[in-house]
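Input chain follows. Return structure tokens only.
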Amino acid sequence: ICGGPCYSLELGLGLFDWVGNGISMELTTLIVNVIVTIRHFIQRYRMKRAILTVDGRRQWNRSVKLGAQLIAIGMIYVVGWVPYSLIVLIQMFQSSQELVDILSRFLAYLPYLQELILPFVAILYMPEVKGKLVALFMFPCSNMNRRHQNRIQAIHNQTITTHIHSRIPNHC
């Protein structure tokens, strides 16, 4: 058993496969993310110059957050696959046991890790969740005080009278 597609052991076919299926997809994702992000910010900058109102500022802030979310999600894919593809390409030209160990121990699981991280990255860009996480991690002591706001305190200047009724009949 060769461990992968046996045609990848042939230099020409393996190189064609990894350029076509590996590197081209990552480069396409990277280039499209950069182009869409630049286009997004250019259009928003033009809009910001044209409209200088409170609503325009709010819309500009939303578009900045949208651009940051686009970059974060796109980069998770690129960071997960580029090292894997580069080591496979290096392995095709120069076979070494160290690269095989790195590939099989660490980088083979990186795409699975990026699938696990992606929902958390998407959640982090939700304003409610982001505000709570920032408050939790940046000001942990102040959050402790906020958690214990419901306290029981003694009421002063009031008298409370109670009547104790006995269950034992008084036979006097």
